[in-house]
Amino acid sequence: SRLPNPNLLRRSTVTASVTLGHALRYAEGSARGLLHQVMGHYLLVALTGIGFLFGLSVFLPSFLFGDWLAVELVNGSLEYRTRLIYDGIVNRTVLRIIYAALVVGALLLSSDIRIKAFGGVIAGSLIVTYAFYAYAFISVWCFFAAVLSAYLILVIHQNERRLPARDEPGRANLHG
Asked: How many CB atoms lie within 10 A of CB 6?
């Protein structure tokens, strides 16, 4: 009837305590990360829905009422003169800020650093457009966004190269 070594018992207790502490911190961090990911997902869905409704509120009346949209050439750029359902209620600059926040915010929420960088470049193009081409904001910013979207082709192409081959043994068939 030998008594256990008290140092060994203390060391085991400390090890178990430290291990449990690491596990709890890992679980807490994972839960926080999962919560952040879930909240980010819901925020992205919300931004998408709000953006859709906002776009619909701008474009549907322009489509239905021909006199709500006029396009003119001003200083070599297209100027869209629009009548909006928000006229007299919300300042146009505020509407531009809301629109920009919806577009750029969704890009900045991405978990892919390349998409976040794209969001930053789009935000930069927005600032440059507003500073130098405020009179033709819509057409000039759309032009910048279209040119910069070529970067997304590169991102998509890189992702396609990372997918497993269609019928490679031991790999999932992700192509249908």
From this structure: 8
